[in-house]
Design a protein that fits this description.
Length: 412
């Protein structure tokens, strides 16, 4: 299984995706996700100019050796661009190995540890009636666990509110139910932490009163709070029994999580912007989190995430793999195969891709009664329709950013 072709394919059916397509001399094809939302072309250049030439002539069966070569051989390590590129190679090689073996990837990882993957959806609204309607709509789609994001009085636009609409006032269009927007510059949003901290507990009180104590509820703070503010929020949400509070304070300041832990027993999910298991070393060893939030796409692929989750298992920490629509169906498939195999799976984020995306990436996974399964096709179970992908060229797009009332740039 010698690699004789490595292609980078960029397509934008509902949003931008970067896919690495590896072909071997015996005709096997593997694909990997290298999408980095808002910085897609940086990964494209890294793959095309630096990685793809190194793959030609290599043995596709030597997955671990290739991972170490791309990580250690470059000397400059870590970071989202490097790790997304390595992840794409890793996924594609696992896809090839599964096809060569005639088995789905999860079987190569030790087989299934469960029958399906519990997933959560994203409910949101500017005000309570809208939030309630969104929760019910997600329940009708089969979701048994719901992330709740809410508007805040006095703020015009806020992270996670899908109903802010397609027209955001600058001619740009929201697409595929995510905040990234096509256009030459990122959209500016506003922020007020004190208003947010006052409002959020009232929203979860209302949701609990409406939907009862059994529904698992999640919330994403999106790195916007200081350690003290994060501790205050975690404590104020304790009565509403959250499944987790995500990214309550910037994860780079890992010592800050000790303050949050001392203040509250609300479970914490961290790591969406981490790229290696070295980023997690101390917060796992000190048991400062309960769930690992990295995306397989941004954290070195299946091989690296498997090692991270084995380490986390020593401390009873579970997975909560990142799964928004800016992870392509290939990256989602990789997360599903890994989640099905590991013992310490927790929950899978699942945002449903648009129909055009599903035509470009043909998938065999199933969604049934709140549970995902990657399917039993050999490899990852996703096929890239290259002709269909060619209909949707790259379009420049950015995530928004925040400013406070006085004009200061704040964490988004």
């Amino acid at each position: 299984m010698i690699i004789d072709k490595a292609e980078v394919i960029v397509t934008s059916p509902d949003r931008n995706f970067v896919t690495l397509r590896i072909t071997t001399d015996d005709g096997l094809v593997g694909i990997g996700d290298a999408t980095l939302n808002g910085r897609e072309l940086a990964v494209v250049a890294y793959l095309q100019e630096h990685v793809a030439p190194l793959l030609l002539g290599a043995d596709a069966s030597r997955i671990e050796d290739m991972w170490q070569f791309l990580y250690r051989g470059a000397y400059w390590r870590r970071g989202p661009v490097t790790m997304a590129a390595i992840a794409a190679v890793d996924m594609a090689l696992w896809d090839i190995k599964g096809k060569a073996a005639g088995m789905p990837v999860y079987q190569l990882l030790g087989g299934a540890s469960r029958d399906g993957l519990m997933a959560y959806g994203h409910a949101s609204g500017k005000e309570l009636p809208e939030i309630f309607d969104s929760i019910r709509a997600h329940q009708e789609k089969g979701f048994r666990s719901i992330r709740v994001q809410t508007g805040v009085p006095g703020l015009k636009a806020i992270y996670g509110i899908a109903s802010q609409g397609a027209d955001v006032g600058d001619g740009s269009v929201r697409y595929d139910h995510e905040p990234a927007r096509r256009g030459a510059r990122p959209t500016q949003e506003d922020w007020d932490t004190r208003a947010y901290l006052r409002h959020i507990p009232t929203v979860f009180e209302a949701v609990r009163n409406e939907f009862g104590p059994e529904l698992p509820l999640l919330h994403d703070g999106h790195h916007r709070m200081t350690p003290l503010q994060a501790a205050k929020l975690a404590k104020s949400l304790e009565p509403y029994d959250l499944f987790w509070l995500e990214d309550c304070t910037p994860a780079e300041n890992q010592e800050a999580l000790k303050l949050v832990r001392q203040a509250s027993t609300t479970p914490l999910a961290i790591g969406e912007i981490f790229n290696t298991y070295w980023d997690y070393k101390d917060i796992i060893a000190n048991q400062l989190i309960d769930y690992v939030r990295s995306a397989v796409t941004h954290t070195g692929g299946i091989s690296h995430m498997k090692k991270l989750m084995d380490y986390a298992a020593m401390f009873q920490i579970k997975s909560g793999f990142h799964g928004p629509t800016d992870v392509s169906p290939v990256g989602m498939a990789a997360a599903m195969h890994l989640g099905l195999a590991i013992h310490n799976f927790g929950i899978q984020e699942y945002m449903q891709h648009g129909e055009r995306t599903n035509q470009v990436f043909r998938q065999t996974f199933t969604w049934n009664d709140g549970y995902l399964h990657p399917g039993d096709e050999p490899g990852l179970g996703v096929t890239l329709d290259v002709d269909e992908a060619g209909k949707y060229p790259y379009e420049q797009a950015y995530l928004p950013f925040n400013r406070l009332a006085d004009g200061t740039v704040h964490d988004w």
